[in-house]
Amino acid sequence: MSDPFFHPVSGFELPRFAGIPTFMRLPFVPPGHERFSDVQVGLIGVPWDSGTTNRPGPRHGPRQMRDASTMIRAQHPVSGIRPFEQAACADLGDVAINPADIQDSMARITAFYSAAMAAGIRPLTVGGDHLTSLPVLRALAANGPLGMIHFDSHTDLYHSYFNGQMYTHGTPFRRAVEEGLLDPKRVIQIGIRCSQYDSEDLDFARANGIRIVSIEEFHARGPEDVMAEARQIVGQRDTYVSYDIDFVDPAFAPGTGTPEVGGPNAYQALQVVRGLSGVRIAGADVVEVSPPFDPSGGTAYLAVTVMFELLCQMV
Amino acid sequence: MSDPFFHPVSGFELPRFAGIPTFMRLPFVPPGHERFSDVQVGLIGVPWDSGTTNRPGPRHGPRQMRDASTMIRAQHPVSGIRPFEQAACADLGDVAINPADIQDSMARITAFYSAAMAAGIRPLTVGGDHLTSLPVLRALAANGPLGMIHFDSHTDLYHSYFNGQMYTHGTPFRRAVEEGLLDPKRVIQIGIRCSQYDSEDLDFARANGIRIVSIEEFHARGPEDVMAEARQIVGQRDTYVSYDIDFVDPAFAPGTGTPEVGGPNAYQALQVVRGLSGVRIAGADVVEVSPPFDPSGGTAYLAVTVMFELLCQMV
Amino acid sequence: MSDPFFHPVSGFELPRFAGIPTFMRLPFVPPGHERFSDVQVGLIGVPWDSGTTNRPGPRHGPRQMRDASTMIRAQHPVSGIRPFEQAACADLGDVAINPADIQDSMARITAFYSAAMAAGIRPLTVGGDHLTSLPVLRALAANGPLGMIHFDSHTDLYHSYFNGQMYTHGTPFRRAVEEGLLDPKRVIQIGIRCSQYDSEDLDFARANGIRIVSIEEFHARGPEDVMAEARQIVGQRDTYVSYDIDFVDPAFAPGTGTPEVGGPNAYQALQVVRGLSGVRIAGADVVEVSPPFDPSGGTAYLAVTVMFELLCQMV
Amino acid sequence: MSDPFFHPVSGFELPRFAGIPTFMRLPFVPPGHERFSDVQVGLIGVPWDSGTTNRPGPRHGPRQMRDASTMIRAQHPVSGIRPFEQAACADLGDVAINPADIQDSMARITAFYSAAMAAGIRPLTVGGDHLTSLPVLRALAANGPLGMIHFDSHTDLYHSYFNGQMYTHGTPFRRAVEEGLLDPKRVIQIGIRCSQYDSEDLDFARANGIRIVSIEEFHARGPEDVMAEARQIVGQRDTYVSYDIDFVDPAFAPGTGTPEVGGPNAYQALQVVRGLSGVRIAGADVVEVSPPFDPSGGTAYLAVTVMFELLCQMV
Amino acid sequence: MSDPFFHPVSGFELPRFAGIPTFMRLPFVPPGHERFSDVQVGLIGVPWDSGTTNRPGPRHGPRQMRDASTMIRAQHPVSGIRPFEQAACADLGDVAINPADIQDSMARITAFYSAAMAAGIRPLTVGGDHLTSLPVLRALAANGPLGMIHFDSHTDLYHSYFNGQMYTHGTPFRRAVEEGLLDPKRVIQIGIRCSQYDSEDLDFARANGIRIVSIEEFHARGPEDVMAEARQIVGQRDTYVSYDIDFVDPAFAPGTGTPEVGGPNAYQALQVVRGLSGVRIAGADVVEVSPPFDPSGGTAYLAVTVMFELLCQMV
Amino acid sequence: MSDPFFHPVSGFELPRFAGIPTFMRLPFVPPGHERFSDVQVGLIGVPWDSGTTNRPGPRHGPRQMRDASTMIRAQHPVSGIRPFEQAACADLGDVAINPADIQDSMARITAFYSAAMAAGIRPLTVGGDHLTSLPVLRALAANGPLGMIHFDSHTDLYHSYFNGQMYTHGTPFRRAVEEGLLDPKRVIQIGIRCSQYDSEDLDFARANGIRIVSIEEFHARGPEDVMAEARQIVGQRDTYVSYDIDFVDPAFAPGTGTPEVGGPNAYQALQVVRGLSGVRIAGADVVEVSPPFDPSGGTAYLAVTVMFELLCQMV
Question: A254 — contact with chain F (CB < 8 Å)?
């Protein structure tokens, strides 16, 4: 039987709009807490947007998503999975990033995740902009490159921006491949669309064996077929799942910095996560939720539902 | 020929943004009005949200929907039905609920609807949260249990909330079955989704013969097939139609208290109502429209379009 | 030297937009916590609006104010007081109110505050609508009636609403006087304005010796003079401070359910709290902050600044 | 004793957020209604913004102000006046303007007001942009020029705009003087500010004897002193009161098309109306409330409070 | 090789949120500019909404769309077309319409477009309400009637509004057919839906051979099949493309004056433009974008993506 | 007579909502333009917020302020100054900052301003966060330290943030004093308020002779008296004026990252600029306008009015 310490607060005891908002109303178990090493899946916030080249805001993502996540209940509606009973889940808090120094922040993020790894905790991250994934991968791929299933409207494979900027939210996976954190032949990017500067990112993908599923292909084939291919590409080895909320059409997820029209709807946004069934998820993130551009809060609520679906796949 | 008294004000006489907003610009015929007994379909507001366990706001629904409903014109685009010429329709006003007393409010609502029933008026209700349906059903089912076609993302079949609260917006149809207002074997719930506390509501449905169509089944089969089954379940006897706006995906209907992602789109939201063709509708409601969470007003406009579709089915 | 356990998280360690939001980034010390009895001033949320007769929303107040309160720093700009070093302050969490039962909720609130009183904790409350003050006073005035300095645009002294409703946000202080929780001769209400139903509340005030300072008098005399009178009225005995955010002009505090135009500006809103210097504050509250009507969040930020001023007076 | 037919619906019978919104919950008595000739003060909407040269929106003003006006109660807080008992007040509905033809609309407006005049009704108008005042004055000044007390940040005295446009919201009072509807020597404009195209309007004012009180003078002298002068200028003859909501500082009234910073606060916005005491008000208007630019609705609520103050002066 | 003068500013040189916003960051080449006659495709704003019979706002469309259009990059994601290298594109500025005179404005618009035509420039227009199309067609159809592919939820074929108003945003194409600007047999209208006043517009269409594809037919057949028919109807002769943003479902495009629920999603909104391949586009417009009703700006961003798709078809 | 090239577009030729928005509708004269050296006052945007330690957004300031600035007309309402006729004013465009590198951005800013200085242009800057002032001062103080009149709610004199970050929006003037760009004895900071981390900034001010006028002192003495002192402190030597929009109370200026309640109202916000009369202004800036937190756009409009007042002082 599961440990009551790790059970979320029930909406029948304390109304869901009440109480201090931790992720999914889980206990707050920061590094140093006496139960830290008992955690199996750690929900971690990275309130950071220094890599943003366009509209900032994801630094506010973790707090808004903690708030929205108090709407999440105990049981998955289709599978019946009760994740909080199947694994010890906890809110590990936010990484103390440094908003004025990208390199320092990346070092702090990697250190935080390395500590979680050392304690045997699998991380489910709430960004932050997409650069967040890079320092996380530096911790998670310590023992060798991972595969990745990546939902996004952008490849984030650019070489650099502006005056040779190597670290922005448009470059994390280029760096991750270069640093040996990802095995490009086990990487699939799904949902890619939008007008482009040029084909430099696509050329890199092609040259390295990264599989790109454009939104046109996604809509033509449907989520189930695409996810079958994704499972095949990553196979039965450790895989990272990175979910940029701008994968979803901006009508469903307006609260993001660089929306691109014509994406999946909210139902498909969940279906693709259900299609991860059987994948060995070493860690996952949901990034680019930007509260200042989300006046009705719907983006955050979609994003926490995606988190819940991810969690049900991870436990 | 139809009675001009019951014709709505035309947008060619008075611009649609002008004038005192009654539902669909119909005449205001409250109880006591000399034409009350001539009304055939009565549009009634129930500005009430005391049953809300989460985010309040539906008490403001009727007023916002009156405002939005001035955009409705005279003729259905597909069937060509001109409902205001086929039946005497009127705005009966709002029930004078008591915002600080649930039992008193329910008594007032039932009394209002009983008076309408006595005058031979079929009601089309604008909520209000979903608890509204219970006191309405108490009036409508005076002569025996009704069938029900229920569009929603939640079953609203829970036994109780918090400290044994029996009357909330999560319990109306449990009560209605218990009180013999609904025949559970003639009840179908369509669009159910979202993470759950537990399976208590589903167990009740199964034990009593209530048919639940999950959103997964809805998306797989499509609106037409599902509605064919719905028509079969309720058959040719009196049926209530209850339409919780959170049935629709929150991208299309953000203005509601407990949105659940992954629902039908707006076109499907209308298609299901068109699928009511031939059903004997004893009354209908559209509930849970919450203006404070609807910054651009789109939810109300969708909801009044649903109302217009319902009205075309009722006349 | 002060106990580091009770120090808020510094914005130099963790950026102010980061981290799980407790009130003013203080430790979370709910009833039952091992440090509970060491707390001197307890910040308590009452997420409740069942007494609201107009626009609901204050149930969301505590969460939004926790979020906004992470902007509060350590030191008062004028007095130099560092309250978190002068007294052990903590976030005691939210009272688990029952959103569907007013009497049950009041009992729960009184029980929570009685426990805090028993532990020697002085409460600083975040509402909730103004009915919140009544069950709080039932705990605080256990040993005899208190004086009260009350900032508001409404007297909240009505006898009843609707069908004889005795417990709404328009009646708490009528009840409190009737129940002997307040000594009406030591009560002053400041900022009263707005069109009235009738003079029933003013008649009650006059008959019982409650001093009412209308907004016209407030603007004519200025905050300092009015507060001198307030201090004199309550004298050197235990006094409750109740601060309804609709005291302030709605340009400065739009996020409230029943705004009344023509109130004090934000500077005066702080000045009156500074005018409490020397008052023996048995407890205080800030109520009627309604996030759904506060699109830019400014009301919450003003309210937490008022809280900080109150806290500096209480330590 | 006053006629109950003309009493507004009480908030104790029907909550203020409920019911079909007429102005101040008064009866709807359009031209042709059997009680039309019994009305003494008629509240009339003119949903029109064809004269707007900048941001449109005031066509939506009457509806939003009807909604907000349900917050108005029965009695003035300072004078104790109960206007609905002192005069038969009613909502006469909206003028059916033609949104695509300025001349046709002006003719319709003048006709509506002439009918009200013929029935002995004094009008209190809700605009609409400021051009609204011109066709209203054409009806009201049928028997000779009126004086005017005009609150605004703009003089609205320009000769023409663009390609010689004579009828815009920047020209109504130039036309009114030219047409002999206003006696310029009995006209005072209060609150004038903002950067200017040139001095053409001020030159016209000076040449014709119109008194302009700049915002600098207003702030230096204060509302009471300025209003004493205003009363003297208009004297004891019939006077029109025109209140452009952009008179007030945009922090208090953001919902308007051409805001100008640095105006009076909300308290002063009411004080100037109280300063009309003793003026013979032939009619009054509140114009330029633009709901699309008023996300929190505060402008409308301020405007209806101004209306209530005006009404208390008119009865 | 293409002329660098006509290249847009790159996001790698100047961040996309920076700089003075011209359409798609193209050079500003107004009439009279020395490079005017070198322009091949001219992007023109018509900031005008005098034809609006419902909610105004499209006068603000061009500016908001210039702002949003700085997000557009250089290359089409599917076809790889780089339109700014294939044709000399420029922002020709806004037509100086007269907001208070419909006829004067139409004359100014026609004159501007005639000048562009004379310089050999094909126009891509940003409205403005839909009446904009009429004066544009007067210039473009100088040499004979055009075909038209028209995306909309309304036919805009009404005879007149109100008191016989012939020129509103509900009548442009009735006038265009009457004036011989459009060949009705080469006109197709796609996406038509919404409740109707009557069938007068449909009768006109039928009588003149205009093909109407209702939204029901659109959803049943899909974009590709419908567009194949559209291409066949207009054939290989000059064709105008008119894209009313209310063609798209309001969840994806809330920022418009007369939204109608149940339309295409954003992906389909782009697909139909891609289906124009091979059509001889004499000019195109995107109209009815209304910023005041678009709090998160998503409508404008969708609209500029549609513009980019149109541009890729035009070059 | 003044050069027509430098005249803004009139609202009588092109409506103020129309056209490509440059600052105050002035000509766009970027570096390299043939008229660059003829410019006397250059309006420059710095779309940059990398120094923000709290809520980001000012990178979007210049674009929103260009939009709002099209409302500015030609003539000052009090002084009658027509600045665009008295000096050649132009929009020099935005500095191409690098959003991912603080040092690179500062170098780019300084280079841009040095070029303007070399051309004899006095700059009026639109930020950007307050760190913007530092690289601007590096260019302007090339020949020796300047005095400064600084309007703000924060001193921005902190030594460092987080892990020793020296360059944030809380440190620019500490750096400027250290680098010899400002003469601290000729610096006055006006409006300082808000809870503090500690007294480190005040200690630095005191030790170096910087004069701080707290908001309490400001409200007690009034704008005119404070500005008389300010003029005396800076004397008749070159002075920089830095205007952080959070100087103003957040009810008047909500669109900023770190609002502090209790500041001046909008009228006082202009009065202090008028109090600069006679000061030798070497350059000025308006910073920290953050559009994502300004839903109704009022902050930008206030800020451009402040800019216009500054411009009238500079010409």
Answer: no
